[in-house]
C-alpha cells in the first residue's frame, strides 16, 4: 500500500500595507493638456476610414476648456499616475532604490472621474489628484508640429497650486521617508504636465510640503 502523501500548506509572508497622505506644493506653473473630444473624434474617424471634412476654425476658449481634467463636482484634477511615474523615474537619482522596486512598492490614489469617449456611449475612468490653489488661467504657446509647422496652442495653467495625494505602499519594500524622498526628488528633477524638467522644461515642479507650507495654505 502506497504511503499517503503529506499535504504541505503554503505560507505567504503578510504584506505590510500602509497609507500616507502627502501634500505637494507647486514650485512652477502646472500646464495641463488632456485629450480633447475633438482630437479623439478625429483619430477615430481616421481609423474608421471616414471622409475628412473641412478644417474647423480654431476656438481658443474651447481648446482651453478641453485641456482641463475635471472632477465630478466641477473641480480640477491631474492624473494620479503622472505623480507616481515621476517618483518612479526619480528612483534613478536616489541611492538604494531601483525603478523596478519603486514601481511595485507604492501607488498614488486620487479621485475617480469618467471621461466621455469618442465612440458614442463609451466612457473611460481615470483617477485624478485634485489640484487646489485657484482656478486655471488660459495659456498661449507657440509650438512646432508635424514637419516643423508652427501652431498656437491654448491650454490650462495653474500658477500657485498644491495637491494632496494618498500613497498606498508596501512598507516591506519602502519606508515612509524613502517615499517622501522619491516624491521630493521627482518634483525637482522630473515634474508633471507639459514642459516639465524631464522634457527639458521648467514647469510642473513641486516639493513635499513643510510645516510652514501647510500653515500657509491652510492644509
Explain how this protein is built.
The chain is an alpha+beta fold. It has a domain of 142 residues: 2-Layer Sandwich (Alpha-Beta Plaits), CATH 3.30.70. The strands form 2 sheets. Strands 1, 3, 4, 5, 6, 7, 10 and 11 form an 8-stranded antiparallel beta sheet that branches. The chain has a 3-stranded antiparallel beta sheet with strand order 2-9-8, with helices on one face. Strand 6 and strand 7 form a beta hairpin. Helix 3 runs antiparallel to helix 4 and helix 3 crosses helix 5. It is globular. It starts with 16 loop residues before the first strand and ends with a helix. The mean pLDDT is 89.
Brief write-up:
The protein is an alpha+beta fold and 219 residues long. It is built from six helices and eleven strands. It has a domain at 18-35 and 67-131 and 159-217: Alpha-Beta Plaits.
Q: Strand pairing plus helix content: what structural class?
A: alpha+beta
Could you name the ranges where pLDDT drops below 50 across 5 or more consecutive residues? Answer: none
Task: Give me the CATH architecture of the domain at 18-35 and 67-131 and 159-217, please.
Answer: 2-Layer Sandwich
SS element count, helices? 6
Overall 3D shape: globular
Order of helices and strands: EEHHEEHHEEEEEEHEH
Task: Count the E strands.
Answer: 11
Distance between the termini: 73 Å
Q: CATH class of the domain at 18-35 and 67-131 and 159-217, please? A: Alpha Beta
Rounded radius of gyration (Å): 22 Å
Instruction: Average the pLDDT over all residues and give the rounded result.
Output: 89
Specify the biggest β-sheet: 8 strands, antiparallel
Helix content: 25-40%
- Using the coordinates shown, work out and report the CATH topology of the domain at 18-35 and 67-131 and 159-217: Alpha-Beta Plaits
Strand proportion, as a percent range, falls in 25-35%
Amino acid at each position: 500500500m502506497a504511503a499517503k502523501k503529506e499535504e504541505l500548506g503554503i505560507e505567504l509572508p503578510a504584506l505590510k500595507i500602509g497609507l500616507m497622505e502627502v501634500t505637494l506644493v507647486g514650485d512652477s506653473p502646472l500646464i495641463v493638456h488632456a485629450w480633447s473630444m475633438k482630437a479623439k473624434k478625429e483619430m477615430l474617424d481616421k481609423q474608421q476610414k471616414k471622409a475628412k471634412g473641412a478644417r474647423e476654425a480654431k476656438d481658443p476658449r474651447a481648446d482651453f476648456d478641453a485641456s482641463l481634467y475635471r472632477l465630478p463636482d466641477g473641480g480640477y484634477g491631474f492624473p494620479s499616475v503622472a505623480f507616481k511615474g515621476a517618483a518612479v523615474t526619480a528612483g534613478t537619482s536616489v541611492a538604494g532604490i531601483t525603478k523596478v522596486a519603486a514601481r511595485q512598492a507604492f501607488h498614488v490614489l486620487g479621485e475617480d472621474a469618467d471621461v466621455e469617449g469618442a465612440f458614442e456611449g463609451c466612457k473611460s475612468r481615470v483617477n485624478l489628484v485634485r489640484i487646489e490653489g485657484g482656478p486655471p488661467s488660459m495659456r498661449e504657446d507657440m509650438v512646432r508640429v508635424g514637419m516643423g509647422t508652427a501652431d498656437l496652442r491654448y491650454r490650462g495653467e495653474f500658477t500657485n497650486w498644491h495637491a494632496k495625494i494618498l500613497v498606498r505602499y508596501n512598507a516591506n519594500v519602502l519606508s515612509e521617508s524613502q517615499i517622501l524622498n522619491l516624491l521630493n526628488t521627482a518634483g525637482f528633477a522630473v515634474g508633471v504636465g507639459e514642459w516639465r524638467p524631464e522634457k527639458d522644461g521648467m514647469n510642473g515642479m513641486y516639493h513635499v510640503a513643510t510645516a510652514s507650507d501647510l500653515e500657509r495654505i491652510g492644509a
